[in-house]
Amino acid sequence: SWNPPHYHQHHDNDNNHDDNDNNNDNDNQESFESLIISTLLEPDELAPLFAGAQWAGTRVWHAAICGIQYLQQHYATILPSSSLLELGCGLGVPGMIASKYLHAQYVLLTDQESIMSQLSKNIHTNFTTRPTNNDNHDKSNKDKKKKIIEAAPLDWSCEGLQSLLQEKQHQLLHTKTFDIVLNCDCIYEPLYGKSWKYLIHVLEECLRLNPNTICLTSVERRKGDGIDQFITTLQSSPYISHMEKVFQDDPYNIEIYQAHGMIENDKRNKK
Predict the structure, then answer these.
(1) pLDDT (0 to 100) of residue 115
(2) How far apart are the first and last CA of the chain?
(3) Which strand ranges, in their side-by-side order, compose the sheet holding 240-249?
(4) Distance CA 192, CA 186 (A)
(5) C-alpha dist (Å) from residue 182 to 31, 90, 94
(6) Is the entire prediction scored with pTM above 0.90?
(7) 2 vs 33, 84, 96, 175, 188, CA distance in Å?
(8) Residue 67: what pLDDT?
């Protein structure tokens, strides 16, 4: 099970917290339910030991933890009125936390078809409304029903994204695409090859449709990961103004990058 911590932003000189802060942390955590995640694949979905993409999708990586912490610290106020697309979600923990605890309006978890049954089970386990006789709880449950989380397979391509957007348009309402797009630890060439090239197609299309989309890529730096080439290639896109490193965690070698869309002034400057 996943027990959500009380996240806080780290400052270099913030080594200690007073007793009141600790008590507040405990009070805040009491209202949280555990997030229960199954990592088991069905027998017919089991992959060979070195089929990295499938097995990597059954673990929660540090990049995913940092990704959801970053969302909480910087976008908690807009998530209740925002849609979130998680790419290459694996177990879907960041998206599930964004829905269950940060109250994102609409969350869509996407990955390969082979792990959809696992994702669907985890969503069902954690987001089935429980009936209650308490009026206050009834009202809370009604509010929660308005928050939607789903899982869908996605082929990393412009066509794949367009098809998905068309299918989910009734959930997106006021926008052509998602407000926030997150991918965590999806770039590591020894495991995934150069699949990041296809990831770029999806990010480009999101920012072409809406330059204000918040596109976040959380990665763990490893030898020969291919991340620098990913950043350079994405930055050269006609739909990307620039890539910005917005977070760095040295102990775990985690970096988070935001791809900024090309607005009119940026187009003129880039020319």
Answers:
(1) 86
(2) 50
(3) 148-153, 106-111, 83-87, 180-184, 214-220, 254-261, 240-249
(4) 8
(5) 26, 12, 9
(6) no
(7) 9, 20, 11, 32, 25
(8) 97
From the list 142, 208, 223, 153, the residue with the least C-alpha distance to 177 is: 208
Beta bridge partners of 259: 215, 243
Q: What is the spatial distance between Cα 7 and Cα 68, in angstroms, rounded to a whole number?
A: 10
Q: How far is CA 142 from its chain centroid?
A: 25
Query: Across residues 32-46, what is the average pLDDT?
Result: 67
Q: What is the DSSP letter of 127?
A: H
Question: Which residue in the block uniquely carries the two structure tokens 């694996």?
Answer: 90
What would the two tokens of residue 197 be?
């090239």
The DSSP secondary structure of 60-83, one letter per residue, reads --HHHHHHHHHHHHHHTTTGGG-E
Average pLDDT over residues 25-54: 58
Sign of CA dihedral 203, 207, 210, 213: positive
Locate tokens 């959809």: which residue?
116
Q: How confident is the model at residue 40 (pLDDT cuts 50, 70, 90)?
A: low
